[in-house]
Amino acid sequence: MKRSIFTVSLICAALSASAAEVAPTDVKFTDGAIADSLTGVAGDPVAGRDVLGDRALGNCVACHQITDMSDVPFHGEIGPMLDGAGSRWSEADLRGIVVNAKMMFPESLMPSFYRTDGYTRPGNAFTGEAADSTFGPLLTAQQVEDVVAYLVTLKE
Amino acid sequence: MKRTGRITSLICTTALLAGAALADPVDDTLVVNDEIEITTRTAAPAHLADRFDEVLSGWHFREADTRAMQADDFDNPGMIFVENALTAWETAEGTEGKSCASCHGDATESMKGVRAVYPKWNETAGEVRTLETQINACRTERMGAEKWKYSGSDMVNMTALLASVSRGMPVNVAIDGPAQTTWEQGKEIYYTRYGQLELSCANCHEQNYGNMIRADHLSQGQINGFPAYRLKNTKLNSAHDRFKGCIRDTRAETFAEGSPEFIALELYVASRGNGLSVEGPSIRN
């Protein structure tokens, strides 16, 4: 009895999460920005900071320098420095840039972190093999929200 | 006094290292065995003049100790594999009982300059051939021997031998005439943004050479130094092996070594280094 209630509540939790979450193919942009949260759950800036530094997740420091993350070694020089990004951009802008920067900057080198279509020879992660049915966005919707929540804290 | 001198030189070294880590390729010259002068930077070939003023060997983007290893064949681990290839060169194989030497004689003389003009159009076959494709054609058609694996150790040792005897000679691949269609296909591949990260060769090696991507110092992606002995995997690596790794790292479905796509890409990338010296086997990260 107890077990079945637990199972039902798990299913409900899963359903409510997916119901609130915007799928990568359903994201709506306005001038490259995304006004609404992808999940309806507030982003966690501490978790977001980890995503930015983790090679297996955002690996944002591969291209961007961030003074606040100087504890993470080897920041790249490909993209703009992110110090003050939270002053230069609104939360909606930052969400749009993380999801698909090319909507705002068509020539951007930045990967789209929450997009699943329109790629040339998409692969299965870093295997060199073709993408299969497990192909998904680089970050989850909540990870995007966490990253955005961290970026808005980077004030001048 | 002596102490002050040492401290000053330490400070200078630190300043230089910091400079190197920040961006630009280092200003240095490469002479191998105090004898072979290597052109590691030169005016960009005409077809590239709207993109670059100057083309630079990847050698300029490596640290001082890595650069020094390449200046002396006794310090260059790639040369051990050249020795192995010299033995293979003399070894008869296949149904015809021939070795490479049976037709080509002394590789150190007869093969001078061959590396510099490959990939190259082959009129009889009606295709652009890489050095590897040509070696395998020799093996199957003239020797009656089995093909070598495209980037296997036998093959990469042999291409290292052929590169080594052309060191110091300018890369000079033909991009017009019958090779032009293949060259154009290679150019298109070079500028295509592959994979889930949507990165082209040009995004890193044309737009961002000299910059750091995480801990890696981006070069112009020249292949005049291939095959390259990489400190990372302690073996010789073919150009196609490196192409494959780069495309894989864009989270893409890569192309196969020896595929028409990579042969075209090799011709195009080689042509971006026309004028640089053949440098293989080079030492890289």
Notable traits:
heterodimer, A: 156 residues, mainly alpha, 5 helices, 34% helix, B: 285 residues, alpha+beta, 3-stranded mixed β-sheet, 11 helices, disordered N terminus
- CA radius of gyration of chain A is 17 Å
Q: Based on helices, strands and strand pairing, what is the structural class of chain A?
A: mainly alpha
Question: Greatest interface and its residue counts?
Answer: A-B, 29 and 26 residues
**Can you summarize the main beta sheet of chain A?**
none
Low-confidence regions of chain A: 5-16
Side by side, the strands of the main sheet of chain B go 10-9-11
Task: List the helices and strands of chain B in order.
Answer: HEEEEHHHHEEHHHHEEEEHHE
Tell me what you see in this structure.
The complex is a heterodimer of chains A (156) and B (285). Chain A has 156 residues and is mainly alpha-helical. Chain A is built from 5 helices and no strands. Chain A starts with a helix and ends in a 5-residue tail after the last helix. Chain B is of the alpha+beta class and 285 residues long. The longest helix of chain B has 21 residues, at 2-22. In chain B, α3 crosses α7 (153-164). In chain B, the strands form 5 sheets. A 3-stranded mixed β-sheet of chain B has the order 10-9-11. The two termini of chain B are 38 Å apart. At the A-B interface, loops of A face β7 and α10 of B.
